[in-house]
Amino acid sequence: MVKHDLKILFVEDDDLMRNTISNVLKKNAETVILASNGKEGLELFKQEKPDIVITDIMMPVMNGLEMIHEIRRLGSNVKIIVVSAYSEKENFLKSIALGINNFLIKPISYKNLLNILEELANIIQLEKNVETEKQKKLQAQEQLKIAHAELENRVVERTQELAVANQQLIEFQETLQDKIAKSVTEIRLKDHIMMLQSRQAVMGEMIGHIAHQWRQPLNTIGLLTQSLLFSYRNSNLSDEMLEDRVNKIMVVLEHMSETIDDFRNFFNPNREKINFSVESVVQKTLSFVESSFQKHKIELELDIEDDCQINGYENEYSQVLMNLLINAKDALVDKIENNRKIWIRVSRRMGKSCVEIGDNAGGISAKIKDKLFDPYFTTKKDENGTGLGLYICKTIIETKMNGYIDFSNDKNGAVFTIII
Ligand SMILES: Nc1ncnc2c1ncn2[C@@H]1O[C@H](COP(=O)(O)OP(=O)(O)O)[C@@H](O)[C@H]1O
Ligand SMILES: [Mg+2]
Fold first, then answer.
1. How far is CA 17 from CA 20, 34, 55, 188, 295, in A?
2. Which residues does the chain have with pLDDT short of 50?
3. Atom 24 of ligand 1, residue of closest alpha carbon
């Protein structure tokens, strides 16, 4: 037989009976504690906390019923087996009222005793199992609670972290916006300065033009003034003659002043987009450079295939043409001696205006073609080149007027094309 993992308290006043039964019990249970009356039994019960109490009823000092009563009063529902004589029926009934689990009638049948023990052992084991399960469940619930609390803490922490990160992001965005705004202002300022610098290059050409334009009228004024002096000295200066000469001089001066107005107009950037004819701007721009080109023995060839009206900034467009013409002139003067030629073609391509400006200076080498439109890129020595001309051309045509500018080489030289 297997020994049960049980602690049994056996309370019996009869020494012989106690020893005999205890021997049987010891074979079947791990621990057996013995007491010889109810009082002793109650003490041992409190100390040892047995799984089963087997007790006689009639005992000195404290009887079994009183002991059971006390045990139950302690709140314990330990398994209790009552042992008594058949004649003590009354006591059995009382003990049942106290909530006992089984009883044995003296003389005790070992078989009965062992059966009851077996049965109780099973019940106790089951109860223990239930208890462990209950404990486990409680433990799991406790862990779940802890995990839940931890999770909540983490959520709170993460939320705070996120709030901080978000704040940083907002601040970062604000600084970024500030920085961008500052950069944009700087770029605008830089562009503006570049525009002014590039205009200066064109201005040299314009002054040359004015000087040339003025040479003839200045000469005329000189002659008219001298003729006045001559007539006066010879005393044949009539009123009519004086008036005629002064009128002539005034016409010439008027003409000279127009040249200056043209010049001033050219240097006033347009504030608003207007419709203008490409051909007329080309003609006007050519008139500004003609004189200087004649001086350098450059032949100008203008071919108007088709004129177009475009919407944009007229003066800026003219400035682009001027830059391209000056670049062509510079290349020609630098590279070839005779037969210098610049051609301009005005046409329409797929409904858009097209102006091509070509020369016979030999073209642009592949080595520098990627840098051509970069600001400050120049191959010209010293103060001859600012490297801003083509950069400004690109800004005006592509950024301000939504057009397109590029170049290619033909067999004679570079060809710049503007499409708007
Ligand atoms: N028609 C051309 N033929 C040969 N080279 C040219 C021509 N146009 C421009 N380039 C080259 O492009 C460079 C940049 O031109 P640009 O931006 O106008 O600056 P810059 O005229 O001040 O040098 C010039 O230095 C020159 O090397
Ligand atoms: Mg230039």
1. 5, 11, 12, 116, 150
2. none
3. 378
